[in-house]
Amino acid sequence: MKSQKEKKLKFFIPGVFVFLISLIVIFSIGGVIKVYRLKAAKSKLINKLTYLKKSNAKIKRQIYDLKHNKQYIAELARQELGMIKKGEIVFKFFGVNNNKKK
Length: 102
Known about the structure:
The protein has 102 residues and is mainly alpha-helical. The chain has a domain at 11-81. 74% of the residues lie in helices and 0% in strands. The protein has helices at residues 4-26, 29-68, 70-81.
């Protein structure tokens, strides 16, 4: 007849073995590192997606203004192309830098 200690030992050793194997599988070093790397990559992608959505919205506004807003087109032509309206007089001052910050 087996003693009480032998019966407990019979279940204890395999239980410990299964527990240790489970810990190794769940918390393996490579797995944990991979999870952290994937989380960091996910965070970067979410930030990039947010930036691209904002950029896309800005471009959509510009497209709408280019199609429908004549004042915007005129302002853009003045800034980008140096165009003027008929009858306007343009004064150019040489040697003066108006964009200089103090």
